[in-house]
Specification:
about 170 residues; alpha/beta; Rossmann fold; 5 helices; 7 strands; disordered C terminus
Length: about 170
């Protein structure tokens, strides 16, 4: 599969400049991809791009927080690796929830760290994608996550989730 647009990581510049790059795209489709493996980021960016999904890239949790902070209103889904340097996926999820309690996260990993059981009941988790994955598996999980109206709670029961794009009425 050839993919020649845009490199796998963020180009030099600020997160705000990256937001401006995707600014014309519908916010209900933009996906923030967070993985420390450049080959995984590139594969995911190409696969999602081939289906019209705009993407923002982050090489780790610290980078992802910078991008999410600048572009939160444009991001519909965060696809993140659970094991990364500088900040684990679980730590990143906690930080993202402080920025947006309705953030949608699709977690991915080839290995689940101790304590991963807590993920099952996490209110923002809309799915889990085991690594390695194929083009087809990735797209199937993304489609499911983007349209998810339910999640599995900590007790193994299915419950409705609130659309992350809705404005809370406080």
């Amino acid at each position: 599969m050839g993919c020649s647009e845009d490199p796998g990581g963020r180009a030099p510049g600020t997160a705000r400049a990256e937001c401006a790059r995707i600014g014309h795209n519908p916010p209900e489709q933009t996906i923030l991809v967070v993985d420390d493996d450049e080959m995984v980021r590139e594969f995911v960016r190409c696969a999602l791009g081939s289906r019209g999904y705009p993407t923002l890239m982050a090489k780790d949790g610290v980078d992802a927080l910078e991008v999410y902070s600048a572009c939160a209103d444009q991001i519909a889904l965060v696809l993140l690796d659970m094991l990364m340097p500088r900040m684990t996926g679980m730590e990143l999820i906690e930080h993202l929830k402080k920025l947006n309690s309705h953030v949608r996260v699709l977690a991915m990993s080839g290995y689940l760290p101790p304590g991963h059981e807590a993920l099952a009941g996490d209110s923002c988790l809309v799915g889990f994608l085991p690594k390695p994955f194929s083009f087809e598996k990735l797209l199937a999980h993304i489609t499911e996550a983007m349209t998810a109206k339910e999640r599995v709670n900590g007790h193994g029961r299915i419950e409705s989730i609130r659309d992350s794009r809705q404005v809370s009425e406080s």
